[in-house]
Design brief:
Helix content is 65%, strand content 2%. By secondary structure, the chain is mainly alpha-helical. 20% of the residues are buried.
């Protein structure tokens, strides 16, 4: 199987090795063509906003005609199997690809946001007296201010998060059985459902309840000025849905973390490929 054939059936190749493998397959071995092709693909793949296949096709489509591969040039410029390119191709299959850099940062921003909104609600519910934040009422108020304000930030990031997930290159799934992959897919879908549902019910509760939604004491998203009795009833229903759904986060988040931990125990570089400070090799 050639490097290009492998490229078409797996996405677990580090980007630099994938680039060299495609060059090997197409015989683009002169220095100018190599640099031009790598430069174009680097721009398209630098932040993961294109799939490997799309970036490769786009890069080849704009290459000068003199650099276009031909049967003769491929035969004459074939790289020996002992070349550095061939060794990179072989080693590439053993390295797991990283997620796109924006997705890495977004993942950890959301992780911190989820822990904040969950922790502040738990703290508010368990406040029974005065704390370093003030009286019981002041403590609850401060914690819920942080809860609602952080939720506003996460709400603003929902659309960018979904856009990144839909357009960025995604690594190949880690090894596992069908039930494991099914559980991972279901839990990820549930996470995205919470990203949409929790902000929607929270904002509806604040708007139709008339109080609005505060943002760290700097601004308050206005509530409905001419609130009716039906609006108040609807806000109450949204509160019930918000509270009911939020309870399941205490099962979903630990399940998500447990899945990552078990991959680590099995030797999979799950945290490395989601680490924004770890550059792809």
């Amino acid at each position: 199987m050639t490097c290009l054939d492998k490229l078409l059936v797996t996405s677990s190749w580090p980007r630099q090795a994938r680039s060299l493998c495609v060059l090997e397959r197409h015989g683009l071995e002169n220095q100018g063509s190599r640099q031009l092709w790598l430069w174009m693909q680097a721009i398209m793949l630098r932040f993961g906003f294109a799939t490997v296949g799309a970036a490769r096709a786009r890069a080849f489509s704009v290459l000068p005609r003199s650099a276009a591969p031909s049967a003769a040039s491929s035969a004459s410029n074939a790289v020996p199997k002992t070349s550095l390119v061939a060794r990179l191709c072989t080693a590439a299959s053993e390295v797991e690809e990283h997620y796109a850099q924006p997705l890495k940062w977004m993942h950890w921003v959301y992780a911190g946001g989820f822990l904040t909104v969950m922790g502040t609600v738990l703290g508010s519910q368990n406040t029974t007296g005065s704390t370093f934040l003030g009286t019981k009422g002041e403590t609850k108020g401060t914690l819920m201010l942080i809860h609602k304000s952080t939720a506003v930030v996460l709400t603003a990031l929902v659309i960018p998060r979904l856009a990144l997930r839909a357009t960025a290159a995604i690594p190949k799934a880690l090894p596992g059985s069908f039930p494991e992959h099914l559980a991972a897919n279901v839990s990820h879908a549930a996470m995205y459902a919470f990203m949409l549902g929790m902000p929607a019910t929270g904002l509806a509760m604040g708007y139709y309840g008339g109080k609005g939604v505060p943002f760290y004491g700097l601004y308050t998203i206005p509530g409905k000025a001419d609130k009716t009795k039906e609006d108040g009833k609807f806000a109450g229903e949204m509160f019930k849905w918000h509270k009911w759904a939020g309870g399941y986060l205490w099962y979903l988040v630990p399940l998500h973390v447990a899945g990552a931990v078990q991959h680590t125990l099995r030797g999979h570089a799950i945290f490395a490929r989601m680490n924004p400070l770890a550059a792809p090799k």
